[in-house]
Target: Holliday junction branch migration complex subunit RuvA
Amino acid sequence: MIAQLSGTVIQLAATSAVIDVNGVGIKTLCGPNTTADLRAGQPATLATSLVVREDSLTLYGFGTGEERDFFELLMSASGVGPKLAQAALAVLAPDELRKAIATEDLVALTRVPGVGRKGAQRIVIELKDKVNAIVADHPTDAAAGPEPGNDEEWRDQVSQGLQGLGWSAKDADAACTRVEHLAADDPTISIAELMRAALRTLAKA
Model:
């Protein structure tokens, strides 16, 4: 099991990153919240989970070990694959996921693209007794995240991340417009926070 990668980011896309580890470029699939915190040419540490299928070995990367543990927990529920687990972590932070499952908050869970009411009920039933086993004692592996910078920069990153999760360019642009007041009101807000806010507006639409 590859649990962590540390190295230099040599390639970066909306939903993936290639990390140079001692001369070996290792590709990890990441949620947009994670890639928003990375910069090409800069050092990075990612918590990772290796998903083994009959025809593939896929490494998924996360900003914190807690996110990785929730990813693996979510995939233990019936009908939840890697893509859906990543989408859940893009919409809800680990603490929000823990609370939603523990309190049977189906409304919060159905904000995740691809999770309907029945799917949310199944997640609650299967994971409610397990969710508190994941304690928030992991060190933060990635930085808190860069500030959004100028309007064009953060909109481009958030839009690409949303499209990487399956939203159309039109929907992604509309979501960016709905959260642009957050960037204007708080210059220190991170791109990851803007991404999460944009995803929530899409879930409500």
Summary: The first helix runs from residue 32 to 35. Residues 67 and 93 are 8 Å apart (CA to CA). The longest strand covers residues 43-53.
